[in-house]
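User: Good morning. I'm curious how iron/sulfur cluster would be positioned relative to this chain. Could you predict the structure with it bound?
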Amino acid sequence: MEEGLRFTCQKGCIKCCDTRGYVYLTEEDMVRAATFVELTPAEFETRYVYRTKHLLRLRKPKGSQCRFLRSDGCSIHPVKPTQCRLFPFWPELVADRSLWRDTARRCPGIGQGNLIQIGTATEIASEMERAYPTTYSRC
Ligand code: SF4
Ligand code: SF4
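Assistant: Good morning! Here's the predicted structure, ligand included:
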């Protein structure tokens, strides 16, 4: 078995955005995104964010996808939330080869390109744990 993971994001693909599930963001993500779309963080939060006790997530109207998704990709790409930026290097996927392989069914970039050493992949994934401590402390 290879001691690493292959991944290269595929040009023009939006499959990981055009899917079910929530997009969580950190406070820093929110400030960056707000600045990018020329809103204050408070305005951005009111318009786009649902805040729970421990988490922030993008509002997703029923039956529709992320409000920043366009046919050619993410309209806030340079400042997209941490979970979007790090996908598919999420701790649960990096740690489990069969989940990683399953995820390839919805991410055509998995299995493509240069081999990324497992230590590097784990280091990338650890940013998720730091960004979303309440989520990963439950693991
Ligand atoms: S914020 Fe951007 S990258 Fe994240 S789900 Fe929405 S469109 Fe996709
Ligand atoms: S599904 Fe995979 S290849 Fe497609 S945009 Fe997302 S990360 Fe890139």
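DSSP finds seven helices and seven strands in the chain. The first strand starts at residue 4 and ends at 7.
Let me know if you'd like a different ligand tried.
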